[in-house]
Amino acid sequence: MSKSLPSRAENYSEWYNELVKRADLAENSAVRGCMIIKPYGYSIWEKMQRALDDMFKETGHTNAYFPLFIPKSFLSKEASHVEGFAKECAVVTHYRLKNDPNGGGVIVDPDAKLEEELIVRPTSETLIWSSYKNWIQSYRDLPLLINQWANVVRWEMRTRLFLRTAEFLWQEGHTAHATKKEAIDETEQMLEIYAEFAETFMAMPVLKGIKTANERFAGAEETYCIEALMQDGKALQAGTSHFLGQNFAKAFDVKFLSKENKLDYVWGTSWGVSTRLMGALIMAHSDDQGLVLPPKLAPIQVVIVPIYKGDEQLNLIKEKIDPLVKALKKQGVSVKFDISENQSPGFKFAEYELKGVPIRLAIGNRDIENGTIELARRDTREKMSLPFDGIEQVVVDTLHDIQEKIYAKAFAFRESNTHEVNTWEEFQTKIEAGGFLSAHWDGTPETEEKIKELTKATIRCIPLGVKKEVGKCVLTGEPSEHRVIFARTY
RNA sequence: CGGGGUGUAGCGUAGCCCGGUAUCGCGCUUGGUUUGGGACCAAGAGGUCGUAGGUUCGAAUCCUGCCACCCCGACCA
Question: A418-487 belongs to which homologous superfamily?
Answer without folding.
Answer: C-terminal domain of ProRS (3.30.110.30)
